[in-house]
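Sat 14:20. Reprocessing the chain from the morning session after the first attempt stalled halfway. Input below, unchanged.
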Amino acid sequence: MNIVLWVVQILLALAFIMAGFMKTFTPVEKLKERMGWVKITPPALVRLVGIIEILGGIGLILPAALKILPVLTPTAAAGLVITMLGAIVVHLRLKEGKQSGAPLILLLLALFIVIGRFWLAPIV
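Finished this time. C-alpha cells:
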C-alpha cells in the first residue's frame, strides 16, 4: 500500500504543480482562451488558485519524504480535495459539466491519499 500511495502522491504532485505553475505564471489573457472560469474570475484569485495548487503539490511530497511533520502530507491532500470541490462547483455553475471530470479524478486521488496516509499507511 505504501508504494501505491507514493506513486499516486508523486503523480498527483506533478499534476498540481504543473497546473499551478500554468495558473500562476501564464498571462491571464492566454488563460482566458483556454479556461472559461478565468473569464469571470479576478486575476488575483486565478493566481491564488495556482499558488495553492503548487503548495499543495509540494505538500504531497516533501513532508513525507523528509519525515518532517509528515502529517502535513495528508493535510495537503485534504486541502487539495477542498480545492477540487471548489473547481467542480465552479464548473457546474458555469454549465461546464464536462470540465468537471478532471477535477473529480484529482479529488478522488487526493482523497485516496488522505485516507491512505491518515489511516492505512501513515508515515511515522
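The chain has a mean pLDDT of 97.
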